[in-house]
Write a structure and sequence with these properties.
alpha/beta, two-stranded parallel ribbon, globular, 7 strands, 223 residues, 9 helices, TIM Barrel
Length: 223
């Protein structure tokens, strides 16, 4: 079980990170980290388009600069661009000056490539302190984690990724998956195949995949 799914850590994280959005019906946020990937992200976009699904992509600056055409496709197809960082360093170990640099380098890469100003930030490795969360908010970004993580980078198998997600998926959930890697191109085929199944089965449960912003907009009190 990932630490994210442990009650004590989940309760602590929800105190300073957006982990889910309560009181929304019929939708969940689908998110992807560490991209874009020259190989995986286009395949993933084909799957999302087939299911009329939207997602939020938490991007790494070097991968953004490496794949401008993929970035443009993300925008053209209505997906949300968000910040994941520059070097994928653990945030809890960074002083404010370096944390700010990590975020701003990524945000600048996104803006220079697409003209989009990112609104959300997810810390690499899913961990940051409450004080860092306050600092990030002062920079103008809302910190996001999630509440469903099937550990797909470990490549446990498509069926296991699907079952781990569907076991915990609820209206208002934020699902964490990976289309890229901070270490160059990696095989994310299991994730792509799993997303195809997850979206089909979620639709059968009356749940549609949307971006983080759309999930927040659906909240009655604007979480």
């Amino acid at each position: 079980m990932t630490m994210l799914h442990r009650a004590r850590f989940s309760s602590w994280a929800r105190g300073h990170l957006l982990c889910r959005v309560d009181d929304v019906g019929g939708r969940f946020a689908l998110t992807f980290d560490d991209g874009p990937s020259l190989n995986t992200t286009p395949r993933l976009l084909d799957v999302l388009a087939r299911h009329h699904a939207q997602a939020t992509f938490f991007l790494l600056a070097p991968n953004v600069r490496r794949a401008p055409h993929v970035m443009r496709r993300l925008v053209e197809e209505g997906h949300e661009l968000a910040v994941h960082g520059n070097r994928h360093w653990p945030m809890a170990l960074l002083p404010p000056r370096i944390l700010r640099t990590e975020i701003e380098k990524c945000a600048r890469a996104i803006f220079d490539t697409t003209g989009v100003q990112a609104r959300f930030f997810r810390p690499p490795f899913g961990f940051m302190t409450p004080a860092q969360s306050v600092f990030v908010r002062h920079l103008g970004y809302k910190p996001v984690l999630g509440d469903v993580y099937p550990e797909d980078p470990r490549r446990p198998g498509t069926e296991r990724i699907v079952s781990r997600v569907l076991r915990r998926l609820r209206a208002g959930s934020i699902v964490i998956l990976h289309d890229g890697s901070p270490l160059g191109e990696r095989d994310r085929g299991q994730t792509v195949d799993a997303v195809d199944v997850i979206l089909a089965q979620a639709a059968g449960l009356g749940l549609a995949a949307v971006s983080v912003a759309a999930l927040l907009d659906a909240a009655p009190t604007g979480t």
